[in-house]
Amino acid sequence: GDVYKRQYQRRVHGEVIKSYNCTPAEEKKSIDERKKDFPHGIGECGSDALRFGLLAYMIQGGSINLDVKRVEGYRNFCNKIWNSFKLVHMTFNKDFKYDISKLDNFESLELVDKWILIKLNKCVEEMNRSLKDYEFGTATQCFQGFWLYSFCDVYLEVIKPIFKENSYSERAIIVQNILLTIIDQGLKLIHPLMPFITEELYQKLPDYEGHAESISIATYPQNNEKWVGEEQENNVEELQKLVKTIRSLTAGINLPSSARPQVFAVFIEQNEKLRSSVQQNIQFIQVLAKCAGVEFLNSKSDVPVGCIMGVSNTILEIHVFVKEHIKADQEIVRLEKQKQKIEALMKPIQVKVNNPNFSKMPEDVKTQNTEKLKGYEIEIQKLDEALEQFKQLL
After folding, report:
1. What CA dihedral angle connects 249, 252, 256 and 261, to 10 degrees?
2. Which of 78, 72, 77, 64 is closest to 38 using CA atoms?
3. Are 311 and 300 in contact (CB under 8 A)?
């Protein structure tokens, strides 16, 4: 294979610093700054984290101002890879046999299963391209983004309940094969950038056909033409927006960690495709949004008293029933403060719009300000409605 050569310079304590023709004052300043930054010394990060960190820096060019704290962040990423591997390994029962042919009928898979395989396939494609073009910084971003935000934050969370029920069900077997596919290909993808942790974890994988003696001689993953689908990606993106809206609504109130409030949804604009997607993937929302479920209502008048409200996808009003979990008087204080902040943001725009010379401004400036003002007015209206709901609970 190719050998990539690159020269790095470094400045550290003591003797190495002296080789750069520093004055005694500069040398002392440098050492004092290092001691100030690391009063207890530099923590162990491991060669994988350091290697990954140096490669990540290459996205910004040849000159590297190495931040050890960033390398420590990549050490945490190594821990995340290890812990997610451990979690996946626990799902494999003693009778599990890896059979990737179970994934051949791609269209028959659940939406979230198709989505994660599509994301994996995109990662495979981008990693191959990045390594071929020596864009190692892009490769680190690509893999870290997939592993953290698609695999760990979404897929692993969604599939956990499956193994609490029955690890021998047909659904569980499909998921087990997907998990091993992701782990197997993921370790191979990142091996050139993290050789040590990937080799150790690869040796812990269950034995299966095609498992190499060492990951270093295993075939590098290639693009799978079947694992594509823009529609599936868009559907999951819409569901994630809904989850984000629910979580943002509940994040600002003191809900008990065990609380699973009911969610009610009212369409501002009818969208049967989104309704169907939510109903077919309700577990996705229940797990990630930590709610009891989502019930669609015909109009806002059907929403029970005691809900907090937000808007998802610009076409769906979300009402989270929190009456049983919070104190209404505290929420009223919170919403009043939020309303005051928005009113403060509105004031300078209102002054600008009401100025007689506003009509003489460029069209793009007028449009930007009027749309921003309209957005704030809508937020105030929504807050007033929410405040009214909470006042009815007193």
Report:
1. -10
2. 72
3. no
Taking the C-alpha atoms of residue 341 and residue 347, their distance in angstroms, rounded to an integer, is 10
Paired with 318 in beta bridges are: 265, 310
* pLDDT per residue as tens digits for the range 86-97: 999 999 988 889
Tokens linked to 182: 């992701």
Measuring CA to CA, how many Å separate 316 from each of 21, 246, 251, 260, 387? 65, 12, 19, 20, 20
Dig out the tokens for 60 from the structure: 């910004």
Long-range contacts, stretch 49-54, CB < 8 angstroms, 24+ apart: 49/74, 49/75, 49/77, 49/78, 50/74, 51/193, 51/194, 51/195, 52/77, 52/78, 52/140, 52/193, 52/194, 54/8
307's enclosing H/E stretch is strand 307-312
What is the structure's pLDDT at 13? Answer: 45
DSSP 8-state class, residue 317: E
Please state at what angle helix 111-132 crosses helix 230-251, rounded to 10 degrees.
110
Burial 91-115 (b: 16+ CB within 10 A, else e): bbeeebebeeebbeebeebbbbbbb
DSSP structural state of residue 154:
I
- Name every residue whose Cβ is closer than 8 Å to that of residue 44 and which is 6 or more positions away in sequence: none
Highest mean pLDDT among 30-39, 161-170, 267-276: 267-276
Element of type H or E holding 213: none
Kindly report the pTM of this predicted structure.
0.78
Instruction: Please tell me what DSSP assigns to residue 305.
Output: S
Give phi and psi for 216, each to the nearest 5. Answer: -65, -20
| DSSP letter, residue 58 | G
- 8-67 pLDDT, tens digit each: 444 444 444 444 567 788 878 877 877 777 777 666 788 999 999 989 988 766 667 777
